[in-house]
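Re: the request from the purification team.
They wanted to know what the chain is likely to look like in 3D before they choose a buffer screen. I agreed to run a prediction and write the result into the notebook, where they can find it.
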Amino acid sequence: MKAMKLEAKKFSENLYSMKGISKKTVEEHLKLYQGYINKYNEIQEKLATLTDDDYAKANQVYSMVRELKVELSFAWGGVVNHEIYFGHLGGKGGAPSEKLLAQIEKDFDSFEMYKKDLKATGISARGWVWTGWNWREERLVNYLGDSQNTFPMWEVEPILALDTYEHAYFIDYGVNRGNYIDAFLENINWGEVEESYKSYMEYK
C-alpha cells in the first residue's frame, strides 16, 4: 500500500481574535489538529510496511491490519473534522444569506429553530456535531458523533462542524458547553458554509 502524506492547512488569522473563544484556546486546539496530521502520516507509513505475514494474520479481534485501519479512520476524522471547523470560524456570526437561509428555514421552520436544534445536539454529543446535506432526503440535518470516526450518516455531506470535545472550550468556559456553543455561533463565517452548500447543490 502506497503511503500518502498530509500537510496541515492554514486558516484565517481571524481565529486569533474571536469573540468568546480565546487565542489561547485556538492555539492549543490547533496543536491537536497538527497532532492528527502527524499521526495520520505515521499510520500511513506503517501501512506501507505491512508484510505478507501481517496480512496473513489479519483478524477481527486483534491484528496489525485491524489496529492500523481503525486508527487511520480516527486520525482521518480528526483531520477532516477540524479542517471544516476551523475553516468556517473567524466570521461575524449572524445568519447565512439567500439560498442557504431559505433551505434552513424550509428544513427547520426557522433559523432560530435551527440554532436551537444545533445547540441541543451539541450539548448531547460527546465529540462532534455536524450540519449536513442529506442527499436521499434532500434536506439539511444536524447529527452527532461521539468520536472522530463514529456515527457517520450515510449519504450525508457535512457543511458545518462543531467540536464539542472539552478541549474546544474548557479554557474559556469550564463545564459550560452551552455558552461555548453560543460563542461558536457568533463567530461563524457563513460565507464559507454557503460555499460548501453551493458546491453540493451543483450536483443535486
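For the purification team: Residues 22-87 form one domain.
Please add any questions underneath this entry.
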